[in-house]
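Supplementary notes for students who missed Thursday's class. We covered one full example, reproduced here. Read the sequence, then the structure, then the short commentary at the end.
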Amino acid sequence: MLIAYLVGSVLNHFGKISIYKPGLHDLYTVAMKECPRCSRVYADESLRFCLDDGASLVPRVSPSAQQTLRINPPRATRAKPTDVLPGSRLTLAAREQSLIPWIVTGGALLLVVVMGIVITIVMLAKRPASPNTNGANAGKNPTATPTPLTLGLSGTRWTQTSTVSQIKEFNFRPNGTINNDPGDTWKQEGNQLTMSFTNGYAIYRGTITGDRIDYKAHNKVNFDWTGTLERAR
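Structure (token representation):
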């Protein structure tokens, strides 16, 4: 031990060996050596053995040097959806919003149906009832005889007994004249007869009933009279 101390003192005297004493600069120096037995620290990196006990020196790390910690990046996680408890206000509001379109659609359909029913009733009320003539007549008078067909006057001859009219005989020609006089004409529409004499001076209007014609006459001097025609046999 004495020899080792003397050798260390000589080397230190000549400045070739720098013995490190722990101090403040230990916070900044990292490349040093340390005796694993006596824990003596040497700043000279060329030394390989301790000057006190001859043990092999090992690298020493400054206590201030902190080991770098590796921080793992955060893991990507899927956010869990918020659970809505049954009966909460949020659930009730969502249900009400989902029911609104159905309520509106149902109300519109109901309105259309009601309007269709009202229009149908109005149209049926305004539609005139078709008379059932045959059924009505059968109910009133089952033994009633049918009305005879109106006789066509074309080619027939009629006479009258009226003392007012000077015309005693009426021959209804197919060409629409009476007694072949172009100034005297006749026109038949069903059972209605219209006769014009002397180019419209006198007008006869009558109703045909079988072999009888009852008429009313009027002339331009405002003279009115009536008469009856009977079919000649």
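Commentary. Residues 89-126 form the longest helix (38 residues). The two ends are 189 Å apart (CA to CA). If anything here is unclear, bring it to office hours.
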